[in-house]
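[Automated response] Your request has been received and processed.

Submitted sequence:
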Amino acid sequence: MIGLKTFHSHLDEFLGKFDDLGRRYDHTINNCSELEKVIDDYSKFITNKRNKETWEQMEHLESIDLSHLVVDLRKKSALCVAIMEKYRALKLQNGMDDVSDYFENIESCIEKEFGSFQITSKSKVLLVGSGAFPMTPILIAKRTGAEVVGIDIDEEAIQLGQNVVKKLGNGLNIKLEKTLVENLDFTEEATHIIFSSTVESKYDILDQLYTCSNDNVVVAMRYGNQLKSLFNYPLREVDGQKWIMVEKILRPEHVFDIALYKKA
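Generated structure:
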C-alpha cells in the first residue's frame, strides 16, 4: 500500500497530464501514443489492489480537496478516453490498428455484459455513448448477429465511428446516430440497452427511458464506485417505482463494473 501523500500526488500528476493532452487534441493523431500510455497507466492504477486500500483510507478523511480532485479527474479522464477513441479511429483510417491495454480491458469486459440476460440474434441492442471507436456494437453484432444501434452527442465521434463500422463491421446490422434516446424510434424496440460508464447524465437518461422503452427491456449500466469512480461515473439511487437493480457484475480486474436494471 502506498502512502496517502504519494497517492494524492499521483492523482495530481494524472490530472495534469489529462488536462494537457485533452487541450492538445487537434483532430489528427498527434500526441496519440503519449495519451495511450497515460490512459493505460491510469487503468492499471485504478485496478491495483494496493491503491484500493489507500483509497479506502483517504475516503475516511472526507477531504473537500479530494472530492474536487475526483470530480476533475473523472471529467478529464472521460474526455481523454473519448479522444483516445478518436485517435484509434483515425489510425484505422490510416491503415494502423493496434490495441492498447485499455481497449483490451474493455473488450474482455464486454463478454459478460448482461450476465444471465444473454443477447441473441433476435435481440435489439442500444448503446448510449457509442464513441468514435464503437467496439461494443461491433463485437455484439459479430458474435450474436443482433441488431445494434449506437448513439452519441458528438458529431465527430459519430462520423469516425461510421468509418470504423465500414472497415471492421461491414455487412453487420449496426447503425450509429447523433441523437437522443427520446428521439429514436429504436428505443421502444430495444431489448437491451447499454450505458457507457463515461456518460455523465446516464441516470437522468435512465429515468427518461422509463416512458420510452418497452416493459421487458434490460439495462446494463456501466459504472465505477470507490477507486473506480476516478475513471467512471458511479452508481446512483434510482426511483424504485420505475427501476430495480436485478444483478451486479463486479469485475475487480476491469476498469468498470456493471449494474443490470429492469422495470419495477
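Summary generated for your ticket: Strands lie at 124-128, 147-151, 174-177, 192-195, 218-223, 243-249, 257-263. Residues 4-102 form one domain.
If you did not submit this request, please reply to this message.
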